[in-house]
Structure to design on (509 residues):
């Protein structure tokens, strides 16, 4: 599958960071499914040819901002469709969420849909959308900050050696207040539960009696939420690159630690790869790339490298490393980028770090991290006060040499403030015993969503089947493994599950 360049789009199917940047710890007001107000029911989508994507249809639709309060106004959702090639034998629509929260479904489907879903598109209209608060849907979240200096992952990353709790609190509160002021009418309504309600609204709008769904990364949390809230409304559901929904919603500091551990484990796998494939990795570090990586980061922590008018420091390398790990195919390019920085050329790593922060060529930033933080903050119950984050940060720094910045100190953004949120659902996450079993796909060395999360989610949902890819990278579908692709396509097309305990080999070497 062709990748979206990191400086062109923050998320694709396998590059979705999976870091789930929760921000404003928001209070739930209601956790139950609410029917759409009558004036929104039975609305159909008015499709027209997308002007920027031949073969695709585009539409916009209004959905209630608050399903419990018709007077609260609307969101205008952007929706895209790749029509089934065999309309005579069409099954229905396959709704796809590529990840996030904050990922654009519209642009990702336009860029990747024809190739990624070549088989499924034979009998499915493949449909995606920009969820409320995201991308081309309006109103959208944007805190208008320099993400590298003022956003949720602002540098320098705190460690026990440099942490100043007072300065951390001051910086985070300034960011949170700015986000609240600029998005006051959006933040209370962007929970994943409301996105699930929108998804059911869209299902009815396209005329499908039951939903067929493919969720990746954060899209698995949306899928688990939908299955729990609308247990009799889905025909088939595939969840790939899986988040543990219970951790995400109710134990987010545990989740953050698990995600950092997964990235650290993947770093070790990558360094082993470079030992065995020195030419592919640009001979970075020779037979000891672990030493070379730590030396490079340490050197740049002390004296950053000039990259044009900008700099590349150790924190930038930590961020770039995480970006490059998300696809096994990108490992040679990551090794070459590290080797280039070792030789004084920091441009390739600078580009990877810019992709993480969503930096545009004009120096402004896409609001993807703002969207990440706001949506996951609504969903997740982060503790109040700064002490839990100081403790978690010290633990992460002591245990995750390269990925510690994903857990602990940086998570304080999510616990810093409380905005009253509408329509939140935090479990229990269970699939109906009478529904089609959910197909859960996990990768053993996923750098963003650990394999154990797939195992836990399968057990938690109850009526679910686990399919495993033995390999690396964030995501198994779409050219990583023919075995996985065939199993997923067969399930979605014919509702035939792979045998219990099926393991597939990764084809990408």
């Amino acid at each position: 599958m062709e990748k979206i360049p990191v400086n062109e789009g923050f998320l694709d199917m396998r590059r979705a960071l999976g870091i789930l940047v929760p921000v404003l710890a928001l209070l739930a007001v209601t956790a139950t499914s609410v029917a759409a107000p009558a004036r929104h029911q039975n609305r159909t989508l008015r499709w027209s040819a997308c002007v920027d994507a031949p073969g695709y249809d585009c539409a916009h639709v209004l959905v209630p901002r608050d399903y419990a309060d018709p007077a609260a106004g609307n969101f205008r959702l952007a929706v895209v469709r790749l029509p089934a090639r065999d309309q005579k034998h069409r099954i229905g629509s396959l709704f796809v969420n590529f990840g996030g929260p904050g990922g654009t479904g519209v642009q990702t489907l336009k860029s990747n849909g024809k190739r990624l879903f070549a088989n499924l598109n034979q009998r499915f209209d493949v449909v995606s959308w920009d969820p409320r608060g995201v991308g081309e849907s309006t109103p959208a979240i944007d805190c208008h900050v320099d993400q590298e200096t003022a956003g949720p992952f602002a540098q320098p990353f705190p460690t026990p050696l440099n942490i100043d709790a007072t300065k951390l609190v001051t910086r985070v509160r300034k960011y949170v207040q700015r986000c609240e002021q600029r998005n006051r009418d959006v933040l209370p309504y962007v929970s994943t539960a409301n996105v699930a309600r929108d998804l059911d609204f869209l299902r009815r709008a396209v005329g499908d009696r039951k939903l067929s769904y493919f969720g990746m990364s954060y899209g698995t949390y949306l899928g688990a939420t939908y299955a729990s809230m609308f247990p009799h409304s889905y025909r088939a559901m595939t969840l790939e690159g899986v988040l543990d929904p219970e951790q995400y919603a109710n134990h987010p500091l545990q989740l953050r630690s698990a995600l950092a551990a997964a990235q650290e484990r993947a770093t070790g796998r990558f360094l082993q790869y470079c030992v065995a494939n020195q030419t592919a990795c640009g001979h970075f570090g020779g037979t000891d790339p672990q030493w070379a990586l730590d030396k490079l980061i340490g050197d740049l922590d002390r004296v950053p490298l000039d990259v044009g008018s900008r700099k590349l420091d150790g924190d930038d390398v930590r961020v770039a490393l995480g970006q490059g790990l998300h696809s096994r195919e990108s490992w040679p390019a990551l090794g070459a980028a590290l080797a280039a920085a070792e030789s004084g050329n920091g441009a390739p790593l600078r580009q990877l770090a810019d992709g993480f922060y969503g930096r545009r060529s004009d120096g402004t930033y896409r609001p993807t991290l703002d969207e990440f933080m706001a949506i996951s903050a609504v969903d997740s119950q982060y503790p109040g006060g700064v002490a839990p984050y100081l403790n978690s940060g010290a633990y992460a720094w002591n245990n995750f040499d390269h990925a510690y910045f994903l857990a602990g100190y940086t998570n304080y953004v999510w616990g810093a403030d409380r905005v009253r949120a509408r329509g939140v659902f935090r479990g229990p996450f269970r699939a109906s015993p009478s529904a089609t079993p959910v197909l859960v796909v996990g990768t053993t060395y996923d750098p963003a969503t650990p394999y154990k999360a797939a195992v836990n989610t399968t057990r938690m949902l109850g009526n679910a089947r686990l399919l495993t890819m033995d390999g690396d990278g964030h995501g198994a579908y779409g050219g990583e493994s023919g075995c996985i692709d065939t199993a997923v396509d067969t399930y979605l097309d014919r509702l035939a599950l792979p045998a219990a305990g099926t393991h597939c080999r990764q084809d990408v070497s």
Notes: Confidence is low (pLDDT under 50) at residues 1-42. The two ends are 15 Å apart (CA to CA).
